[in-house]
Amino acid sequence: MAAVADPDAEMVIYLSGTRLQSDSSKSAILVELGLESLGFHTGEAAGEEGSNILGFARYRNGADVPSSLIELVTQPKTSPQAVACARALLESAGFTVTICSDQAGRIIDRLVRPKYNAALRLLDEGLASQKDIDLTCRLGLGYPDGPIERTVRGGLAYHHDVCKALFESYGTPAFAPARRAVVAAQRREGGD
After folding, report:
1. Is 171 within 8 Å of 165 (Cβ atoms)?
2. Within this chain, do residues 147 and 126 fall inside the same structural domain, yes or no?
3. Between 147-154 and 156-170, two packed helices, what is the crossing angle to 10 degrees?
4. Are residues 125 and 149 in the same domain?
5. At residue 58, what are phi and psi to the nearest 5 degrees?
6. Which structural domain, as residue segments, surrounds residue 45?
């Protein structure tokens, strides 16, 4: 485990839903992110944004137990000292930390959501059953679980919400929520 680089470092952590207060006297300020970008909390400044404020998101697949991976979100002018302090703190708590820029979906959701949508669309098109699609991915690609199995376990309505936010941000067709996810979100909203 890593130790905090500066033993006198002072950091503040804001959990999701808490209103951020800037404080330049702190070594780093961490803001837990949901589907929003860090810029929502800090503002945008024509590519010049950044300070001692960083975002963080602990990856989880919907209702699944959160992983030990944290995506640490930086902006163009984020202080390198703030990044080092935040990384050291999170790693000392046992997390694996990856650094990414302030983009909707960060790294993981931008990689996996199109794959989950593609698998759901193949199911809708009747290419194969859910069991066969998941089995093929497990055996052929070495995945611990199949894409549909994982999406259903995490929650199709949750998958819809993430994909909808990504589609609104990027307009990329691969992020458009698959039909089954749309149905799950409609059923949730309808109270079923």
Report:
1. no
2. yes
3. 100
4. yes
5. -90, 120
6. 11-101
Check whether 3 has a pLDDT greater than 50: no
Please report, as a single letter, which amino acid is at residue 51.
Answer: S
pTM for the complete prediction?
0.85
60 plus 81 within the same structural domain: yes
Give the mean pLDDT of 28-45.
90
Q: Is 6's pLDDT higher than 80?
A: no
DSSP code string of 5-47: S-TT--EEEE-TTPPP---TTSSEEEEE-SSS-THHHH---TT
Query: Does residue 121 form part of some domain?
Result: yes
**Per-residue pLDDT at 4 exceeds 50:** no
Residue 45 has a pLDDT of 76
Q: Is the pLDDT of residue 191 over 80?
A: no
Are 96 and 19 part of one and the same domain?
A: yes
First to last CA, the chain: 46
Between CA 9 and CA 55 the distance in angstroms is 18
